Amino acid sequence: MCANANPDTHNQDYNPSHSSSFHSQKDSPYSALQQYTDNYEYPYCQDINKYDKQLKIGQGTFGEVFYAKCRRTHRAVALKKVKMEYEKEGFPITALREIRILQLLRHENVVRLYEICRSKSTLYNRERGSIYMVFEFCEHDLAGLLSNPEVKFPLEEIKDIIRQLFRAISYLHSNNVLHRDMKASNIFITREGKLKLGDFGLARAIATSKMQPAKYTNRVVTLWYRAPELLLGDRNYSFPIDLWGVGCIMAEMWIRSPILQGTIETHQLTLISCLCGSINTRVWPDVEKLELFSKIVLKDETRKVVERLTPKVGNRYAVDLIDKLLVLDPSKRITSNAALEHEFFTSEPLPISAERTLRHLPDNCFEMTAPQRPRLGVSHAPKPRETSQMGVSAGMGDRLY
Length: 401
Ligand SMILES: Nc1ncnc2c1ncn2[C@@H]1O[C@H](COP(=O)(O)OP(=O)(O)OP(=O)(O)O)[C@@H](O)[C@H]1O
Ligand SMILES: [Mg+2]
Known about the structure:
- The chain is an alpha+beta fold.
- It has 2 domains: 40-136, Phosphorylase Kinase, domain 1 (2-Layer Sandwich); 140-391, Transferase(Phosphotransferase), domain 1, CATH 1.10.510.10.
- It contains 13 helices and 11 strands.
- Helix 5 (155-174) packs antiparallel against helix 7 (240-255).
- One of its GO terms (molecular function) is RNA polymerase II CTD heptapeptide repeat kinase activity.
């Protein structure tokens, strides 16, 4: 990652057996190498001390996130520390993927990765240096904002937020990148109302040639936002999995909490069929090819998306777009480009930046610092909330937002 440094121009020649700093007979070659790398001045990977860490704002599956300021320029940044504690095989592949993908992407609605920094190993960090991803700082995340009752987005601002989300997804998909972890806490919003899609820890580039079916892992996406094809074992999935997540998030803009809070995969499927209707070959002809379809038994249900969401959402275009996103058959689910053409965005009131609402907020609403909302930390094994708004005793299938 930061190996493009040239040792000849920046460091003394490395020779453990000759160097005075490696003189101890009992030193293993490993510790000699460790000392060498610790003292190495990586020209493209600066010391994290150039930033002043001020507050922990996020604790995710793959690392801690801090608010910090550059000591020289005073620019605000978010530092995501790569979690290495449990890594036996070197630098985590998830972080490598996240860095690689973010380095290739550049869009106003995708969080910008400025650089990678490192901390030296010291006694304080148990002699293990860390790697940090340095991101542009966004004052809020959507999960934090929706959990704050003071924040009330009018329809025109919701339109602008959702339109920016579709623009981000459309950009990713046109570059053959799947996000694979759509959820409100991965959507960052600046004080000026600019949306930045973040957390590319599960993202991957996908093959576009249909010559051979792909075999991606289906243990992706936080359970509550996981598309039915993933839950049924699909490994040849594609862009529609992200659009299912957008459908859940869009509904959440009005419901204010995740709409399908399953506890385990089968429960999640039950909730999905309660809202979106029975999963069968009539509505989804290819479903019988999915590994788990024949293994699960779901009750017959009628589709109730419009009926259930209309009283909460109000706007018929919004309900229609959610209805087109929460389509069971991925091949019939609306694409991001088609969604951007939807009347929801061209009907009155027209989209307006959420800056007006966000400007007046006293505090930042991070997932970490915001009260009340359940944290959805684990991407493939969510911690469901202990009590639901509808009551924890509600039977399987009863708990729809
Ligand atoms: N650029 C940023 N600006 C402001 N806050 C951020 C930024 N990046 C991350 N955060 C905060 O840190 C939290 C965790 O970050 P992120 O989602 O990237 O990490 P993660 O380890 O993959 O988390 P998770 O597994 O919970 O999704 C975010 O939900 C957000 O609150
Ligand atoms: Mg996250």
